[in-house]
Amino acid sequence: MSRWQPDAQERLKRAAIELFAEQGFAATTVPEITARAGLTTRTFFRHFADKREVLFGGEEIPALAERLMAEAPPSLDPVTLIVEGLKNVADTRFEPRREEIRAQRAIIRSDEGLRERELHKRAVISDAIRTGFVRRGLPRAQAALLAELGTALLSVALDEWLDQEGDRRLSEIIPDTLTTLRATLA
Amino acid sequence: MSRWQPDAQERLKRAAIELFAEQGFAATTVPEITARAGLTTRTFFRHFADKREVLFGGEEIPALAERLMAEAPPSLDPVTLIVEGLKNVADTRFEPRREEIRAQRAIIRSDEGLRERELHKRAVISDAIRTGFVRRGLPRAQAALLAELGTALLSVALDEWLDQEGDRRLSEIIPDTLTTLRATLA
Lengths: 186, 186
What we know:
2 copies of one chain form a homodimer.
Chain A: H1 8-23, H2 30-37, H3 41-47, H4 53-56, H5 60-71, H6 78-94, H7 98-109, H8 112-135, H9 140-163, H10 170-185
């Protein structure tokens, strides 16, 4: 086995999710994960701060949100900006990994500490969206509402996407969820 | 000093919030709180599990939400149910305690663990609202959206209420926040 595994991170992640699903998150150790992946614990800690980070890796979504919002034309209406941004994230980050995300969700739901970490992650994304809208010149309360809207749409649409019997894309479910919200508020 | 203080809980809370504000949450101990309140630590632990619970005491809001939703007429439209429920909570629980709630918010914002506890509390309220709407016969995605709407409205309106220069009631700001959301989505 070559020392430099270009796919080490992916293999560690897959091994970890398998083990968490088989024997529980709390009961799984880093050496067990690295043994299953055929890699060293040293390699593990090059990629992840701890076993929890395997499930939450990448703080890149807030940074992505910030960039998309800074680059969007100033005239673009805020709801379109949110929906297009979420569709972009859905197609690039979520759609190719549905089974893995479903397994991750089950593990997160099984552990109180993981659920708190997920809520924290969601709050960080919400803050990034709110700051982005304030920078685009929106009043504070409206920016806060739009940030809540963005994270709420993603969260509700994500559950629909993972729980569906069919095979609809997340990027189709997101605008449908907005339509449901509009109809509910009408 | 009488052994049975009918206002012991209130005095402990006031003493704790003063000390958290003066010297920080982490640096404040339970004996310091009870010394300032002129009560024993034993009394403290009769009212609160730990010093964090002084800031989050009372899991009564999810229970209140559950009761209001079960008792509301089946024909009541869901958005009206949410807004009337929030106005009820605003007038009975929040309006009489604005300064205290403002001080609590500042302390919570100063400590990562307290912020996580607050996010958890919000998630519990959201779950109660979602379950209430599912019991009222709404489809799952709509119930989840309404739960997100309820907690989002309360959170954004609460910040407006605490940060305002003027003296508007929270129960007036809540429907105005909904109007802003409707206009944003239109």
